Q: What sequence folds into this?
């Protein structure tokens, strides 16, 4: 398994920790598109190899396919990876690539809808609940087949940070379990 992440990497670390003693699951590679991403430090803590790729290399089949083959990757998890996955990869890993989104899709999905942007939209709409969606990745942002959704109630008093924390709790609790069920 490879985990693609762009930032802090708390979901990535949670997945690595969850599977560290599972003999038939090997987190073989962490991929990021940001050289300053804290996920690199988190991967190193667990001895998981990592690499930084730019947009050009992500979109170059002659680069990314050999890289994934080198680590024998047969399943990819997007855990806060903010770059668009090229179609040749979504086809190659059809129903073997999953993403987590911080809303109950189809609400608040699509290009530019990630992290605080989603939570701000939820707050602005006055939604009474929000949650996470775990879905397969296809060639369009946040439109792959939904695997699982988990919701949490919201209070009118919740601010953006409260919403973020509630959603992050759901991510940490459910993402590894859903990945395990898929595998």
A:
């Amino acid at each position: 398994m490879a985990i693609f992440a762009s930032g802090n990497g708390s979901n990535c670390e949670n997945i690595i920790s969850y599977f560290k003693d599972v003999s038939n699951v090997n987190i073989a590679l962490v991929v990021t598109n940001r050289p300053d991403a804290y996920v690199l430090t988190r991967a190193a803590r667990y001895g998981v190899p990592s690499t930084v790729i730019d947009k050009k290399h992500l979109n170059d089949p002659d680069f990314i396919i050999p890289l994934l083959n080198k680590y024998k990757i047969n399943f990819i998890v997007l855990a806060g990876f903010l770059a668009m996955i090229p179609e040749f990869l979504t086809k190659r890993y059809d129903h073997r690539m999953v993403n987590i989104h911080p809303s109950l899709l189809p609400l608040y999905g699509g290009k530019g809808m990630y992290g605080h942007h989603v939570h701000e939209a939820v707050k602005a709409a006055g939604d009474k609940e929000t949650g996470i969606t775990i879905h397969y990745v296809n060639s369009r942002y946040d439109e792959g087949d939904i695997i699982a959704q988990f919701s949490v109630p919201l209070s009118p008093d919740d601010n953006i940070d409260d919403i973020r924390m509630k959603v992050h709790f759901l991510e940490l609790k459910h993402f590894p379990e859903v990945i395990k069920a898929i595998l």
